[in-house]
Amino acid sequence: MKLFRVFAIFTLTMFSLSAFAGNTDEAKLLFERYAAFESAFNSSIVDLYADDAIIQNKRTYPTGQIRELNIPAPEYKNLIKSTMPLAKTRGDYSTYSEITFTEQATGVRIKAKRFSVLKKYYSPISILVAPDSSGHWLIREELSESQPF
Questions:
Q1: Which of 67, 72, 126, 137 has the most crowded Cβ, counting Cβ within 10 A?
Q2: CA nearest to 129, candidates 15, 28, 37
Q3: Are 130 and 107 in contact (CB under 8 A)?
Q4: For residue range 76-90, what is the model confidence (pLDDT) as tens digits?
Q5: Is the predicted pLDDT of residue 134 greater than 60, yes or no?
Q6: CB-based contacts of 51, cutoff 8 Å, min separation 6
Q7: How many CA atoms are closer than 13 Å to the CA of 138, on its beta-carbon side?
Q8: Interval 10-34 mean pLDDT
Q9: Cα–Cα dist 40/110, whole Å
Q10: Contact (CB, 8 A) for 136 and 116
Q11: Terminus-to-terminus CA distance in the chain, angstroms?
C-alpha cells in the first residue's frame, strides 16, 4: 500500500509539473510573438491583449515627477494601432533581456528588463498571460515603467 501511495504521489507530481511546463511554454511563445510584433512594427500585437487587460504605466519625468497611468485595454489597443506608423518611422521599439517566467494561480508572470532602442534606457516590465475560456493565451495585465523622450 505504501508503494502505491508513493507511486500515486509521484504520478500526480509529474502530471502537475508537465502542466506547468505547458503553461510556461505557452507563455514563452506568446512573449516571443509580442517581441517579434513589436520589433516588426506589426500592429497585430494588439490581438495578444485581452479586451479587459489591465494596463498600467509608471512614467518618470526628468523633474522627478511620477505619473501613473491606467489605460483601458480597448483604448490602449487603439493607441498602439494609431502610433505604430510613427514608431516605425522613428525606430521606436524595445528589446528584452533577463526574461523570467513564473507560474502563478492566475497564469504565468513574465518579467523582463526592457531597453528602449530610441530613448536608450532600461526599465522593468511585468506581463501576466493566461488562457481565456477557449484556451487562447492572452495578455491579461501589463505593468511597465517609462520615461518621456
A1: 137
A2: 28
A3: yes
A4: 999 999 999 999 999
A5: yes
A6: 73, 74
A7: 18
A8: 70
A9: 21
A10: no
A11: 67
pLDDT at 21: 54
Whether residue 2 has pLDDT greater than 80: no
**Count of beta carbons in the 10 Å neighbourhood of residue 26:** 19
pLDDT at 64 > cutoff 50: yes
Residue carrying the nine cell digits 533581456:
97
Q: What's the pLDDT at 109?
A: 98
Query: Which of 125, 133, 136 has the alpha carbon at shortest distance from 56?
Result: 125
CA distance 42 to 129: 20
- CA distances (Å), origin 67, targets 78, 98, 103, 110: 21, 26, 30, 23
Q: Cell numbers of 12, please?
A: 500526480
Question: In which element (H, E) is residue 142 found?
Answer: strand 137-146
User: Facing residues of 127 across strands?
Assistant: 110, 142
Per-residue pLDDT, averaged over 7-16, amounts to 41
Q: How many CB atoms lie within 10 A of CB 119?
A: 14
Q: What are the CA-CA distances from residue 69 to residues 16, 64, 79, 144 (Å)?
A: 37, 16, 14, 10
**C-alpha separations of 84 from 7, 14, 33, 41, 109 in Å:** 54, 44, 16, 6, 26
